[in-house]
Design a protein that fits this description.
alpha+beta; 158 residues; 8 strands; Beta-Lactamase
Length: 158
């Protein structure tokens, strides 16, 4: 579970969790229905979907990017299915089937809870983290207020 209590609490979080909070708050503020971090050789890409359109956002910082999957695993309730014995007959030589880790992340904002469906593709260094968001519009104003407070505290601390 991730809980936003105050900007001071957010500033005290480890970098990966703070980044995750800020990305989720932005997605809620903008009433996104899906949030996705895609991993590749050269870092990560961040997208969210608003009104049926995908928007690419600023990439995760290089020091945060490799920590995101573990940060989500620690915060969410996930099912890690066993990998079945099977042979991949097409694709990259030596490839293995890696089932998705799936579950939910409960996000608490302003004393209210929102469950985000989570899927993690565990393939390293590739894969993705995907959050499906239902009801973001109910949290948009509170998320905007939280981001404003965070921006003010961030400016004050610099």
């Amino acid at each position: 579970m991730l809980t936003y209590e105050s900007a001071d609490q957010l500033l005290a979080e480890p970098d990966a969790l703070r980044f995750l909070h800020v990305v989720i708050l932005n997605a809620l503020r903008d009433k996104a229905t899906q949030l996705e971090v895609r991993f590749g050789d050269d870092g990560g890409l961040l997208y969210y979907r608003v009104d049926g359109r995908d928007w690419e956002l600023s990439a995760p910082p290089d020091e945060v990017y490799p920590l995101l999957k573990d940060a989500v695993r620690e915060s969410a309730r996930l099912v890690q299915p066993e990998r079945p014995d099977l042979t991949v007959i097409a694709g990259v030589p030596g490839a293995r089937y890696e089932p998705l880790e799936a579950g939910w992340l409960t996000y608490s904002l302003g004393g209210r809870w929102l469950d985000l469906a989570v899927r993690i593709d565990p393939r390293e260094p590739y894969g993705f983290i995907r959050f499906d968001i239902d009801g973001a519009d109910e949290f948009a104003e509170a998320a905007g207020d939280a981001l404003s407070e965070y921006a003010e505290r961030l400016a004050d601390s610099e």
